[in-house]
Amino acid sequence: MQRLQVDRIYKQYGEKTAVNHISFEVGEGEIYGLLGANGAGKTTTMRMVLGLIYPDGGSILYNGKPYSNDELKGLGYLPEERGLYPKVRVSDQLIYLAELRGVSKRDADASLKRWLERFEVPEYYNKRVEELSKGNQQKIQFIASVIHNPKIVILDEAFSGLDPVNVELLKSTVKELRDNGTSMLFSTHRMEHVEELCRNITILHRSNAVVQGSLKEIKSRYPREKVILRTSGEVNGLESLEGITKVTRQENGYIVNISNEEAAGSILRHAIGQTEIYRFEIMEPTLNEIFIKTVGERNE
Questions:
Q1: Could you tell me if 294 and 205 are in contact, meaning their C-beta atoms sit under 8 angstroms apart?
Q2: Considering the chain, what percentage of its residues have pLDDT values greater than 90?
Q3: Which residues have CB under 8 Å from 142's CB, separation 6+?
Q4: Distances (CA, A) of 287 to 193, 217, 283
Q5: Residue 26, Cα to own-chain centre: how many angstroms?
Q6: Is the dihedral of CA 179, 185, 191, 195 positive or negative?
Q7: 174 pLDDT more than 70
Q8: Is the pLDDT of residue 65 over 50?
Q9: How much is the pLDDT for 103?
Q10: Residue 245 Cα distances to 258, 273, 281, angstroms
Q11: 37 within 8 A of 191, measured Cβ to Cβ
């Protein structure tokens, strides 16, 4: 089942095209990555999905249905910027926000308490938002986006301001929501998070979708140009091998850039004759490398 269907949406501001006929689908229990540099059209796309602005062309369907108050109430949204009132108690404003989404006060209160326990911060119930650290404010804002049990959640830089421990906590929560059937549109500049969480992605550049599809299939389009070599001792003469473009010495081995995959075999044969090898791997391109190559080439 496709929870969210975006079909050729288009948005124009004067002479500027902000989003140019973008299409994608987010299935039930899927985290879909929406990527792009600043100004690429991500925010405009998310605002159209949220019903804050309307496309000039194309359509958006939620569970197969067009825009309506009922469908929009079923969305959750975690913005990049802090959107909570700093001087209002956590319980007062999150219960109020849930009631705006059609949840009873009693159910909202119970949901809030469950989430605070989940994040191991039940003592925040009666605290004002301004009393919390930036990272803990992000936790509360996340709870605000899911307290009404939405079926579709839009996450914009969800892990912003969090330390590594809380990043892992929030990631595990996002995965639990996914596994329970929640569909998510996930936008971030942290490519490693996309690689871990998303199966399908769209990369936007200057209002257009320039890369789109499954992450696995996208990676298969790009050559593997890097070898990881971990050794117990030094390996001399790597630079002289055919097909080697760069050798970077590290504490426990080498990163070797290659112009073609055939060069990897000569690296292995060359290294075996000199030292013990702990790891040898021809690395697939990272999403970060694909992003830079795709967007960078179009900036030239």
A1: yes
A2: 79
A3: 78, 158, 170, 173
A4: 10, 12, 12
A5: 13
A6: positive
A7: yes
A8: yes
A9: 94
A10: 5, 21, 17
A11: no
